[in-house]
Amino acid sequence: MAYKIENDNGVCIFTINREEKRNAVNDEVMNGLREVISYIKENKSISFLVITGAGEKAFCSGGDLSEFHSLKTEEQAFSMLSKMGNILYDLATLRVPTIALINGAAVGGGCEIATACDFRLVASHAKCGFIQGTLSITTGWGGGTYLFERGLRHDRALKMLVDAKSYDANLLYEIGWAMRIFEGSKEQALDEFILEMRKIHPSVHQAYKEIELRKWKERNMYERVMEEIRLCAKLWESDAHNEAVYRFLNKSK
Ligand SMILES: CC[C@@H](C(=O)O)C(=O)SCCNC(=O)CCNC(=O)[C@H](O)C(C)(C)COP(=O)(O)OP(=O)(O)OC[C@H]1O[C@@H](n2cnc3c(N)ncnc32)[C@H](O)[C@@H]1OP(=O)(O)O
């Protein structure tokens, strides 16, 4: 199965389980994310959602280019991008705190998933970046909009997007994208973080999130995410994008 969902005493852990593809997101993973979001909405005993990837090499390498490369037109691209864009919006607006447990590289859409989460705990060896520019596209799942809302200095957020390269963990911490860097096992890093969080009643965590989400509603967050996705869909059908994806998929041949 392309994903795993576990409930560890009120902490719901979603693991993308496609190590051989560096945990790239395909339709099955998207449907899994939908499933976990619905589960949390219906199950009030869940206090946290954690997203992570299988193995140590990658948290998530973004959209599965071998599957999504068949989408050629703007409308075809928009249909896939907006499906994931809606899922990420639902994730970002969940009542419970969300934690990206970044066990390895988070690039492209993987970096967008992490940015849509409230907290980013980053393994010291992990490199993360919005590398979409190297594929002649922009962030296609709303990640640019979330990044600009995350309180990073504007120049640092913008530079992270236009650099289109991966940053190491120290730099991610320095610019304020990573909340914490960890050495050793991700399970231990998560346990320590959850232990601190549990000192405060879940209703308090949820009340603070509500305050932030109200701000987002007033700032038309959903509409802005959809406009971002439309921009990416337009670039998706360009020759430059098609050629870049072809090069990636044929790099070792
Ligand atoms: C679609 C939405 C869009 C968005 O909105 O942002 C995107 O996400 S665009 C996709 C952006 N992602 C990429 O461009 C892929 C980037 N991948 C990498 O840079 C590297 O794979 C890595 C994540 C840094 C890991 O490097 P490494 O450990 O050296 O692994 P390999 O590169 O050798 O990959 C192993 C294996 O996995 C396949 N792979 C990796 N990422 C993807 C992907 N996103 N889609 C499909 N396949 C992917 C890679 O092709 C290798 O396959 P094999 O050669 O068959 O072993």
Question: What labels would you give this structure?
Answer:
single chain; 253 residues; alpha/beta; 2-enoyl-CoA Hydratase, Chain A, domain 1; six-stranded mixed sheet; globular; binds ligand LP2KCY5N
Structural commentary:
- The structure is a single chain.
- The protein is α/β, with parallel strands linked by helices and 253 residues long.
- The chain has a single domain, classed as 2-enoyl-CoA Hydratase, Chain A, domain 1, CATH 3.90.226.
- The chain has eleven helices and nine strands.
- The protein has helices at 27-42, 65-68, 74-92, 109-116, 143-149, 154-163, 169-174, 186-197, 202-218, 221-236, 239-249; strands spanning 3-8, 11-16, 48-53, 58-60, 98-102, 105-107, 119-123, 128-129, 180-182.
- The strands form two sheets. The chain has a six-stranded mixed sheet, sandwiched between helices.
- Helix 1 links the parallel strand 2 and strand 3.
- Helix 1 packs parallel to helix 3 (74-92), helix 3 (74-92) packs antiparallel against helix 10 and helix 5 crosses helix 10 (221-236).
- Ligand LP2KCY5N binds next to helix 2, strand 6 and helix 4.
- InterPro entries: ClpP/crotonase-like_dom_sf, Enoyl-CoA_hyd/isom_CS, Enoyl-CoA_hydra/iso.
- It is found in: Cytoplasm, Cytosol.
- Belongs to the enoyl-CoA hydratase/isomerase family.
- This is Ethylmalonyl-CoA decarboxylase.
Rg is: 17 Å
Beta percentage is 15-25%
**What is the averaged pLDDT score?**
97
Contiguous runs where pLDDT drops below 50 for at least 5 residues:
none
Distance between termini? 28 Å
Percent range for helical residues? 40-55%
Order of helices and strands: EEHEEHHEEHEEHHHEHHHH
**From the coordinates shown, what is the CATH architecture?**
Alpha-Beta Complex
Total tally of structural domains = 1
